[in-house]
């Protein structure tokens, strides 16, 4: 089955939007604190039931799907015309957006996964020393920050896809002269 760039951009943006929404909902549903119960020589923390752990993992999975779909969409042979990856990496603008999309995707994954795993550990290991006065919870705002980075990554993948389409059209239209045309186009846009 042949895909078009529009279909691929819809897949990328759908996965990214779902990741963003799940991350925001996970941040909002996260327990603010646990209730400490003093027992013999320790404190047992009782945390309310919340869906933030499952939502955090789902947000992470959809972010990975967005990144994979974004990467795949850039190098996909549209209209049956395959181009070498080296052709795309001749464009400095494309390189910048491609690398920033990868970086924000990685940061979004870290910001989503870290508090999710931390919260899961807090729910699993509930006993703390008697000196504990407050039950620990993950830092507030990390899941929301991960959700925003996920949305940023999605938008950057879409920009990288648009730049890849421009590189593809220039190379197909101008052939081997496409590299010279690409260099002239970058010089004219930077001036």
From TrEMBL:
Keywords: Membrane, Signal, Transmembrane, Transmembrane helix. It is a multi-pass membrane protein. One of its GO terms (cellular component) is endomembrane system. It holds the Pfam family DUF1218. The keyword Transmembrane applies. The chain crosses the membrane at residues 54-74, 94-114, 140-165. InterPro entries: DEAL/Modifying_wall_lignin1/2, DESIGUAL. It is found in: Endomembrane system. Belongs to the DESIGUAL family. PANTHER family: OS07G0462200 PROTEIN-RELATED. This is Uncharacterized protein. It comes from Cannabis sativa (Hemp). The gene is LOC115697416.
């Amino acid at each position: 089955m042949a895909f078009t760039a529009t279909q691929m951009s819809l897949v990328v943006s759908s996965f990214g939007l779902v990741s963003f929404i799940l991350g925001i909902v996970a941040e909002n549903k996260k327990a603010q604190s646990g209730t400490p119960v003093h027992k013999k020589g320790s404190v047992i923390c009782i945390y309310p039931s919340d869906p933030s752990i499952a939502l955090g993992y789902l947000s992470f999975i959809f972010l990975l799907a967005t990144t994979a779909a974004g990467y795949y969409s850039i190098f996909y042979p549209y209209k049956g015309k395959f181009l070498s990856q080296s052709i795309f990496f001749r464009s400095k603008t494309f390189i910048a957006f491609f690398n920033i999309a990868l970086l924000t995707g990685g940061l979004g994954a870290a910001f989503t996964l870290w508090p999710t795993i931390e919260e899961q550990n807090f729910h699993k290991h509930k006993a703390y020393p008697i000196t504990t006065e407050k039950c620990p919870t993950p830092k507030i705002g990390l899941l929301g920050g991960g959700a925003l980075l996920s949305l940023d990554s999605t938008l950057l993948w879409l920009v990288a896809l648009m730049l890849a389409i421009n590189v593809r059209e220039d190379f197909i239209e101008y052939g081997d002269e496409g590299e010279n045309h690409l260099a002239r186009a970058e010089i004219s846009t930077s001036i």
